[in-house]
Design goal:
The chain has about 270 residues and is α+β, with helices and mostly antiparallel strands. The chain is built from seven helices and 17 strands.
C-alpha cells in the first residue's frame, strides 16, 4: 500500500514538472514575447531651399541694334577721330589713317588728307563749302579745293589744325568747322577743349530739341535727346582723342569714347 502511494505521488510530480516546462510553448495558444533593440533613428538638418538663379539684366550694348542695320543719316563728323586711330571698328591696324609728307612753307611736314573726314559724310561734297575759323569768321571755297586740303595737326596740342592744299597753295588757319551745302559738317575738337553739345548742334544749324545718334570709332553708339544734350559735351583729351559725356543720360552711364560723328536718326 505504501509503494502504491509513493508511485502515485511520483507520477503527479512528473506531470506537474512537464506542465510547467511546456507552458507558453507553441501549443499553449499565446505567442512568445519578443524583445528587440530600440529602433535606430538619425537627426538631419532641414534641407535648404533651392537658390533662385540670379537673372542678370540685359545691358544696353547687348540689346542695341547691330551697327550694320542702322539707317545712315546726315552727320557732323569729328575731324580728329577720323585721322587719329585708337581702336578697331571703322579702321583696322591695316587700314588706319596714314600721314603723308607734303611741302609746307618750304619744309616737309606730315599731314593727313582731308579725304579721311570727307569719307564719313553721308552725302559727300558737291558745289561749295563754308569754312569757319575759331574767331567766327567764314569763307566759302569750292568742294574741289576743300577736298584737296591736308590736315597739319598736333593731336596733343590745343592749337587748331592748319589746312593746306599743296597743289593750289590754299591755306586755312585756326580751323573750327566746315559746313556743306547738304547740311553736314566737319568739326574740329582740339586737345583740352570742351564743346557743349547743344551749342555745337545749334552752330551747325541742327535742332537741339531732336534726338541724335553719337557714334564711336568702334561702332558703339548712343542716342542723346533734348533732355540730356544741354548738359552734354564733346571734349578733346590730352592724348588727342575726342570723347562724349552726358551727365543726365542713363544709357552707358552717359559716356562714349572716341566719338567719330553725330548722326541724324532716320526712321
Amino acid at each position: 500500500m505504501k509503494k502504491i502511494l509513493t508511485s502515485t505521488l511520483t507520477l503527479i510530480l512528473v506531470l506537474l514538472i512537464f506542465s510547467a516546462c511546456t507552458a507558453g510553448g507553441p501549443d499553449s495558444g499565446s505567442a512568445p514575447t519578443v524583445v528587440t533593440a530600440p529602433e535606430a533613428t538619425a537627426t538631419f538638418p532641414p534641407l535648404a531651399a533651392s537658390a533662385t538663379p540670379e537673372v542678370r539684366p540685359t545691358t544696353y550694348k547687348e540689346s542695341m541694334l547691330p551697327f550694320e542695320q542702322l539707317v545712315p543719316g546726315d552727320r557732323i563728323v569729328i575731324l580728329q577721330n577720323t585721322i587719329n586711330y585708337g581702336r578697331e571698328g571703322f579702321y583696322t591696324p591695316e587700314t588706319k589713317p596714314a600721314a603723308q609728307t607734303i611741302n609746307f612753307n618750304g619744309k616737309p611736314v606730315e599731314a593727313y588728307p582731308m579725304s579721311y573726314p570727307i569719307g564719313f559724310l553721308k552725302n559727300g561734297l558737291t558745289g561749295s563749302v563754308k569754312v569757319f575759323n575759331t574767331g567766327g569768321s567764314e569763307q566759302e571755297i569750292s568742294a574741289e579745293e576743300f577736298a584737296g586740303l591736308y590736315i597739319i595737326i598736333d593731336f596733343t596740342s590745343d592749337i587748331p589744325p592748319v589746312l593746306y592744299n599743296p597743289k593750289t597753295g590754299a591755306q586755312l588757319e585756326d580751323f573750327q568747322y566746315a559746313s556743306t551745302l547738304q547740311g553736314e559738317a566737319i568739326y574740329s575738337v582740339v586737345s583740352a577743349s570742351s564743346h557743349n553739345t547743344k551749342e555745337l548742334l545749334a552752330k551747325i544749324g541742327w535742332d537741339p530739341a531732336e534726338t541724335y545718334r553719337y557714334v564711336a570709332t568702334d561702332k558703339f553708339y548712343i542716342p542723346v535727346g533734348a533732355a540730356e544734350v544741354g548738359t552734354g559735351e564733346v571734349r578733346g583729351t590730352l592724348s588727342g582723342a575726342v570723347n562724349g559725356s552726358f551727365p543726365d543720360l542713363k544709357i552707358a552711364s552717359g559716356k562714349i569714347n572716341d566719338v567719330i560723328y553725330i548722326e541724324v536718326i532716320e526712321n
